[in-house]
Design the sequence.
């Protein structure tokens, strides 16, 4: 089946791009600017791309840029978070539901139907259940899906991008992810470095986020001491955590200058010393700390930890930890 966007009758010189303004904006963006050559190359392709990076490194932002630079830019960009939905829900979201008879549930279009000839991002694709891994492979090979309660395939011409915060090869080796699906998704791969590996970029990124959030607050600036603190923090939540930290500090700094005192206490602590403890205790304390920083939001905490929300729930039950009330 040929996608409308892959029609060989179309002129190869036809301009599908969104215009030079988008590339200029990407060049100025401290997150995307250095990636522009790769983004251009990936946008010119129609095949899958696997984006690998720790939680918060900007996988969705990168996927959106690939879509916006491509000839699919005027069509929908749809994201499905494979880690946040239970298996029945993600199956209905991804494949859709055939409700053509009165005895069946209401009709529901699947993600790839909604996207048309646009782009679908499968976020945390490693959490896909086995049945949906098979459906995803069929989708990539045949460009069609079969809705729940139906035996008839429907066209699926959207481009598939996938993102993961875990090395899928380890899941393949453990028998948790199909090797043939991994091979299809990883034919093109883009790796996003964690923030701790680019400390020289952190002040510029922080100022970029300040400019975005301070339109209604008035000017804010970082003191040299604040910049030094930002550079030396490990940022387990990467860009997402940096943005949220800067925005919170901007709200607290009423005199316009952001200093170390406006950042969370755990950022100002020196590394702990003392007797060695068990891995169980270390994991319990780390989960507790992340939940506190996430203000009890288990979905956000699971992203920072790099695990699914269901994995976090299992750990909370395993350790007998009382879940925080979510804000």
Sequence:
């Amino acid at each position: 089946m040929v996608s409308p966007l892959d029609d060989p009758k179309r002129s190869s010189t036809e301009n599908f791009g969104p215009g030079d303004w988008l590339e200029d904006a990407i060049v100025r963006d401290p997150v995307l600017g250095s990636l522009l050559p790769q983004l251009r190359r990936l946008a010119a392709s129609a095949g899958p791309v696997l984006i690998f990076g720790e939680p918060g490194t900007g996988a969705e932002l990168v996927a959106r840029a690939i879509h916006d630079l491509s000839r699919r830019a005027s069509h929908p960009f749809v994201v499905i978070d494979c880690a946040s939905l239970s298996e029945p829900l993600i199956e209905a979201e991804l494949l859709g539901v055939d409700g053509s008879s009165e005895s069946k549930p209401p009709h529901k279009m699947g993600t790839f139907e909604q996207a048309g000839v646009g782009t679908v991002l499968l976020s945390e694709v490693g959490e896909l259940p086995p049945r949906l891994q098979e459906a995803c492979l069929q989708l990539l090979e045949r460009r069609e899906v079969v809705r729940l309660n139906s035996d008839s395939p429907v066209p699926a011409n959207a481009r598939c991008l996938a993102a993961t915060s875990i090395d899928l090869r380890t899941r393949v080796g453990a028998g948790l992810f199909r090797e043939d699906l991994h091979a299809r998704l990883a034919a093109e791969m883009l790796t996003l470095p964690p923030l701790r590996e680019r400390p020289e970029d952190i002040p510029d990124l922080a100022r970029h986020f300040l400019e975005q959030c301070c339109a209604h607050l008035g000017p804010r600036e970082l003191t040299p001491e604040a910049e030094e603190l930002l550079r030396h923090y490990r940022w387990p939540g990467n860009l997402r955590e940096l943005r949220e930290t800067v925005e919170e500090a901007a709200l607290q700094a009423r005199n316009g200058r952001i200093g170390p005192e406006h950042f969370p206490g755990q950022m100002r602590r020196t590394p702990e010393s003392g007797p060695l403890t068990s891995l169980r205790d270390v994991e319990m304390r780390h989960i507790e700390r992340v939940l506190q920083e996430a203000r009890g939001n288990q979905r956000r905490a699971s992203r920072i930890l790099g695990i699914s929300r269901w994995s976090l729930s299992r750990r909370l039950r395993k350790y007998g930890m009382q879940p925080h009330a979510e804000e």
Observations:
- The two ends are 47 Å apart (CA to CA).
- The longest strand covers residues 159-164.
- The chain is about 45% helix and 10% strand.
